[in-house]
Amino acid sequence: MFPNKQVNELHENQKFHGDVYVIGNLSTSVTTGLTAGTTQTQAGAVNSAGDIINVTVTANANDGVQLPSAKKGMRVTLINTGASNLKVWPADGEKVNTGTTDAADATVLATAKARLYVAYADGDFTRVVFE
User: Fold this and answer.
1) Which secondary structure element, helix H or strand E, spans residue 128, and what is its range?
2) Residue 20: C-alpha distances to residues 3, 23, 28, 72, 84 (Å)
């Protein structure tokens, strides 16, 4: 059922032809303990990095976080464990949820909630809604 092959590591621009089986966890980058910017603007939003980002301090409603630069296929899980709603901004010169360049996501991220963003193109994240 499983081929007797093991792939330990693939480097950027390498391709593996054939079946690939993943057993166990894939490596992810986690950023936690982030404090949202308090100006409620893109310029004042705190820059973020990682596949999973946990914003733990939102002192005021609509304090902001800026997503990392969107690369096609990238996925970012954003978690708000702060006390107030979180405004989500794209990286400079980019879009979020097919909005206007440099405009915040129209829907704030409520406290004790998480959201998945997927980049379907370079420079453009879309918010994934599970219904």
Assistant:
1) strand 124-128
2) 9, 10, 19, 21, 43
Angle among Cα 80, 81, 84 to the nearest 5 degrees reads 75
Residue 21 tokens read as 């089986």
pTM over 0.85? The answer is no
Q: Which domains does the chain have, with CATH numbers?
A: 30-128 (2.60.120)
DSSP β-ladder status, 95-96 and 124-128: parallel
User: Hunting for tokens 């982030």 — which residue is that?
Assistant: 34
**How many H helices and E strands in the chain?**
0, 9
Sheet holding 46-47, edge to edge: 46-47, 63-66, 86-89
**Residue 33, token pair as written in the block:** 């303990």
At 44-83, the pLDDT tens digits run 999 999 899 999 999 999 999 999 999 999 999 999 999 9
CA distance 66 to 53: 11
